[in-house]
Amino acid sequence: MTNTPAPMKLSAMFGTYPNTAALKNRDVRSALVEFEFADVKVANTAFKAVVREQKFDLSELAIVTYLQARVYGKPYVLLPATILGRSQHHTIFYNAERGRLGPRDLTGRRVGVRAYTQTTGAWVRGILAEDYGVDLDRVRWITFEDPHLAEYRDPPKVERAPAGKVLAQMLLDGEIDAAILGDVTPDPWLKPLIPDAEAAARRWAERHGGVPINHMAVMREGIVKSRPDVVREVFRLLRESKDRGPGKDPDAIRFGVEANRRSLEIIIDYAQRQQLIPRRFAVDELFDDTTRVLGK
Q1: Do residues 168 and 190 touch, judged by C-beta distance below 8 A?
Q2: Contact, 43 vs 66, CB < 8 A?
Q3: In Å, how far are 30, 136, 186, 258, 292 from 111, measured between CA atoms?
Q4: Which letter does DSSP use for residue 295 in this model?
Q5: Helix (H) or strand (E) holding 47
Q6: Contact (Cβ atoms closer than 8 angstroms) between residue 272 and residue 129
Q7: Which of 107, 187, 221, 269 is 20 to 30 Å apart from 75, CA to CA?
Q8: What values do phi and psi take at 115, rounded to 5?
């Protein structure tokens, strides 16, 4: 009688989204792997634990954080599986109570962002520079949190907000001129800085082959090297989970290197131009022989 080997247990950290719900609820299963999911409500609060402590075998990770993790030799390999993707044009706001403001008015202004290394911030700055002619070096960037990577130091042009200050409240109080806030606006006076942001985002996606990547899956390098069968199974499960609950924009959750290549090329370029990474990676550098062929 042949004994079936026990499944490999992986510590895992994912937010709960339409595309991960089936995986986290164990509606998709495998005889090869089991997951021990961390109890994390907001995934980005655990990103420091990923890159500073290597806490999880499998995780979602913001793409700029991953690029920096590559720079500093953190032992994770990228899987070509997008976990979170979205348009970015609607995430930067100004306070309409204090007068109109547009992207081209940002020269010399103070713009708040949770952290300079935040992936949403990197996308927004890149879009402002590329599509609206904003000189990023002539904007004063005000931050509130440390980078996920302890080794990284913000450029000299980046300022830290005084202790105890809150990003959205500083915008309401007129202490900053604009702020990258994400999806939620805490006050009706706060308006998107980019005019007709939804239409602008659609045009951007049409030109660039899809909406920007925010988070992708990463796996511990030792497991990728020793158990390519587990890597392939994890990828299969992530994709099956996505197919069961694609959400409102299934094209945002792309699988395979080629499906993600253009978005990765753009964020690598933005990250290098913004001094987040010292050089431009080739997309294929981000994967190894096992992960590069996933989805083909």
Answers
A1: yes
A2: no
A3: 47, 11, 17, 34, 38
A4: T
A5: helix 47-53
A6: no
A7: 269
A8: -145, 145
The residues that bridge with 217 in the sheet, in sequence order, are: 60
The domain 8-86+212-286 having CATH identifier 3.40.190.10: the answer here is yes
Tokens of 271: 């990250």
d(CA 48, CA 145): 11
- Please give, one letter per residue, the 3-state secondary structure of 195-245: CCHHHHHHHHHHHHCCCCEEEEEEEEHHHHHHCHHHHHHHHHHHHHHHHHC
What residues pair up with 81 in beta bridges, in sequence order?
255
End-to-end distance of the chain based on CA atoms, in angstroms?
A: 36
Q: Answer for the pair 153, 134: CB distance below 8 angstroms, yes or no.
A: no
Show Cβ contacts of residue 158 under 8 Å, excluding neighbours closer than 6 positions: 116, 141, 143
The residue written with tokens 């595309």 in the block is 19
Closest CA to 239 of 217, 215, 223: 217
For 129-183, what is each residue's pLDDT tens digit? 999 999 999 999 999 999 999 999 999 999 999 999 999 999 999 999 999 998 8
CATH architecture of 89-207: 3-Layer(aba) Sandwich (3.40)
**In angstroms, how far apart are the furthest CA atoms of the chain?**
78
Q: What is the pLDDT of residues 46-94, one digit of tens each?
A: 999 999 999 999 999 999 999 999 999 999 999 999 999 999 999 999 9
